[in-house]
Amino acid sequence: PEPMAEIHSDTAIKYGVADGDTIAVETKRGQIKIKVRTTEDLAPGVIGIPHGWAQANANVLTELEPRDPVTGYTEFKALLCRVRKLE
C-alpha cells in the first residue's frame, strides 16, 4: 500500500492529473509528493491527504502558528495549498 491524495474528478481535470499520477502538494511551510486517486466523495477544489505515512508526511504541510483566534487550534485539518503534476 501507499498513500493516495483524494481529489474530485473535476479538480483532477483542472490540474491535468489522473488516477495514479504523482503530484506535489505545496503550502507555505513545505511540500510532499503523493499519488492521486479521484473521487466524487469530496467537494471540487478540496484535496484529502491521509496522515501516518512517512513517504508523504502531511505534517510537513502544517504549521504550529498561527492559531485560530477563536479556538486556539492550529492548522491541522484545513489549509490552503498548491497542486501541480509531477512527471
UniProtKB/TrEMBL annotation:
Pfam family, one: Molydop_binding
GO terms of molecular function: molybdopterin cofactor binding; oxidoreductase activity
Span of domain Molybdopterin dinucleotide-binding: 2-78
Protein name: Molybdopterin dinucleotide-binding domain-containing protein
Gene source species: marine sediment metagenome
Phylogenetic lineage: unclassified sequences, metagenomes, ecological metagenomes
